[in-house]
Structures
1.
Amino acid sequence: MLYSKLFGKTTKTVTKDAVAISHRLLLQGGFIRQLAAGRYSFLPLGLKVCKKIEQIIREEINKTGAQLRIYSWRHCRSGYA
């Protein structure tokens, strides 16, 4: 995959809302894009990095013979009422 063909591009400017250095770098590098206040989406490059990290973790889990436990990250609103 050529970087020039990616959907997300790097930027020099970042919004004032990005206070943490890691947040600023992820925005500048074209890994994530802010959708709304507190909501972000992975751009293709960020998703590729996440999948690579998942692959490395799964390989290490398989080496040790452990089991993978996946938790839900979405919860029903009615469950908290």
Note: The chain has one domain: 9-66.
2.
Amino acid sequence: MREPSERQRTLAAEVAKRLVENSLAQGREEAVRKLFSNDQLKQIDEWLKHQSEPIDRPEAIRRLVDIGLKVKGKT
């Protein structure tokens, strides 16, 4: 059996990387779904649509928590 070419090794590494990234993303999504109700996720997604820059759901959650903490600190 001959050794894989550099291109084959590179492609295999890219595929492996994508598989790991997808697996991690699925794990994060599952964790988010355990923390928030479907209604809350819909509200977060709706808030995302109105942002001036594209951000992902985890970043949206961080920003919303920051906003909530700032508002709470003012009372």
Note: The chain is about 80% helix and 0% strand.
3.
Amino acid sequence: MASLPITRAWHIQCNNADMHTPHRHLYLAFYDVAHPRRLAGALKLSRSYSVGGQKSVHELWMTYSERDTLVQDMFALLDPDEDRFQIMALDPRSKVYTLGKAVKPAYPDCIYVG
């Protein structure tokens, strides 16, 4: 399988307020991938948009355009017969719950997206 070209703009966002603008929305993306090479590709692709997460579950602040690009890139990468990918919109006003040793996410004043 050829490597998947990812084309996105590089930019920096500062201040938590910037992440909550009407242009960016909070999503949770998660996947179950059977083959190790596709799994590594899915992880790399998800982390390129991620602001937090663990293993195969990632929090993402994205525009609609970035979301559509992520979905298209995942579709090109994954095998629909063996792999699964889900993305859901979250309400940024919702309370954060943690389990076990997890800590609530702390977003720095500046995050790098790209």
Note: Strands lie at 11-14, 25-32, 50-54, 57-62, 84-89, 110-113.
4.
Amino acid sequence: MLTLSILSFCSHSFYSFYKTFTMSYHILERRFKMRPHIQCKKVNPISNVQSLERALTILNKLSEYPDGISIARLSEQVGLTKSTIHRLLATLSNMNYVVKDLETDKYKLGLQVLFLSRNLLNNSNIVNIAKQYLEKLSQEVNETVHLCIEDSGQVIYIDKIESNQTIRMFSRIGSRAPMYSTAVGKVLLSDMDQNHFEEIISNIDFTPKTPTTITSKEKFLEEIEMVKIQGYGLDNAENETFLRCIAFPIFNHKGKIVASFSVSGPTNRVTMEFINETLIEKMKRCSLDISRNLGYIGS
């Protein structure tokens, strides 16, 4: 009897619950039908991707202005409305990717960007291995030395050793430069896979940066052939007026060029005589020392 009573009670309780639930469901259903505008907010993945692209575009543009840039100027540079810029900057500022100078009202990159890149730079074998040799070279010739690689058809500076000279180069680790107007770019192109080489060359517009910039594909291809023959590249004030650079390759264990380093300075200091009598020999030895540490067995 006790068992039957319990079963009866459970059955009755379940029926009551089911009846109440059914009534509630129909009431809610009728209410939502009367108010069709009430619905769950859907997330638009396309909108999210667009916001991400815009935020990254802003970060890339801010990297070109180390002293900061105003919202109005930034809006002109990236082609977005001020309200959109302000909204994205607010988010980036909250996450410390961007900081605002309260005195100038300008925005610049925050320290979180540096935090992201810490392992990328620290774990780079080429940077770590080359550092002592490039520092020694810079001390011996007392000129700025850059270490570069190719990235997306451009030269990117991954290390810089500054000289003690009063006139110095305005360049930063992480900044980029064209391949066709730089000595390091010419060296990197000289040993590139043919398909990649042709892809990069086809996208170069050869815009003159100085009066001595090579502005035709034919002459540039001749220049690359010369680099292959002599084993180094020259930038005779082709990228910046009054600055001359000479660059040498760094080889890996397979004998492929994986990076290039340069000595740069004003043309009155880095003369062709200085290059021929001093820099070529010193840089060739430096190139071999670094390459040996990467497993290169050539000469």
Note: DSSP finds ten helices and eight strands in the chain.
